[in-house]
């Protein structure tokens, strides 16, 4: 037990208060005094001088500290290396995400362009068919209008009471009716003309191919 806190060499024996601790029991691995070796608890133990054991253990502790410090340096180096690996992984991941986005943007552009072309094809045929049918509607409408006017003229002629007056116009009227009846009104869209089903597309194989897009391995 220390009598003075400032110096370790003043440690005194607990059993023999007047004896300084000056030897080391190798079997019990404890510092003790000479009287303990001669008469006390360590009389049958092997002892060594305290300075020798002190220097030996201090040297061992110093070696241990050096070993731990070296180990800590190695661990710190490994940590730094792994932190750098994390940064590299994050940077590589960011770059590959960007590349992947560009590749898919390119696919989107191709799909949009093809969609636009196919829509234009449908629109062109739709416009052509509608224009043809509307032309026929105008043609039939013009014929209907002329025929209706002729019917009105014929009814008025039927109501003419004077035979001479009637006969002055009847021949021309009959000719007009005959000519009108001979006008062909057979032009009309063929059956199924309105069908646009031939613009159907099958994208199942393309969709399946897109679903199987995978990262290249060994590239």
From TrEMBL:
PROSITE patterns cross-referenced by the UniProt entry: COS, ZF_BBOX
Gene Ontology, cellular component aspect: cytoplasm; nucleus
Reactions catalysed, as given in the entry: S-ubiquitinyl-[E2 ubiquitin-conjugating enzyme]-L-cysteine + [acceptor protein]-L-lysine = [E2 ubiquitin-conjugating enzyme]-L-cysteine + N(6)-ubiquitinyl-[acceptor protein]-L-lysine
GO molecular function, one term: ubiquitin protein ligase activity
Keyword Repeat: no
InterPro entries: COS_domain, E3_ligase_FN3/SPRY, Trim54_Bbox2_Zfn, Znf_B-box
Domain of life (superkingdom): Eukaryota
Pfam families, per the entry: zf-B_box
Domain (B box-type) ranges: 8-50
Subcellular localization(s) per the UniProt record: Nucleus
Every COS domain range: 158-216
PANTHER family reported for this sequence: E3 UBIQUITIN-PROTEIN LIGASE TRIM36-RELATED (PTHR24099), TRIPARTITE MOTIF CONTAINING 55 (PTHR24099:SF17)
Protein name: RING-type E3 ubiquitin transferase
Originating organism: Psophia crepitans (common trumpeter)
Species lineage: Eukaryota, Metazoa, Chordata, Craniata, Vertebrata
Gene: Trim54
């Amino acid at each position: 037990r220390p009598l003075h806190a400032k110096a370790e060499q003043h440690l005194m024996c607990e059993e023999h208060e007047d004896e300084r601790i000056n030897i080391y029991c190798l079997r019990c691995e404890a510092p003790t005094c000479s009287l303990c070796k001669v008469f006390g608890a360590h009389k049958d133990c092997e002892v060594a001088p305290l300075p020798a054991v002190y220097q030996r253990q201090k040297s061992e502790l110093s070696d241990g500290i050096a070993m731990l410090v070296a180990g800590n340096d190695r661990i710190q180096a490994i940590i730094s290396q792994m932190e750098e690996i994390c940064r590299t992984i994050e940077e590589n991941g960011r770059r590959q995400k960007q590349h992947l986005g560009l590749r898919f943007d390119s696919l989107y552009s191709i799909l949009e362009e093809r969609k636009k072309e196919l829509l234009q094809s449908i629109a062109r045929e739709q416009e052509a068919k509608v224009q043809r049918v509307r032309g026929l509607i105008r043609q039939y409408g013009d014929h209907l209008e002329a025929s209706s006017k002729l019917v009105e003229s014929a009814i008025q002629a039927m109501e003419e009471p004077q035979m001479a007056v009637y006969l002055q116009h009847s021949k021309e009227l009959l000719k007009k009716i005959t000519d009108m009846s001979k006008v062909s009104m057979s032009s009309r869209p063929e059956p199924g003309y309105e069908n646009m089903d031939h613009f159907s597309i099958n994208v199942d194989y393309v969709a399946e191919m897109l679903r199987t897009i995978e990262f290249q391995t060994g590239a």
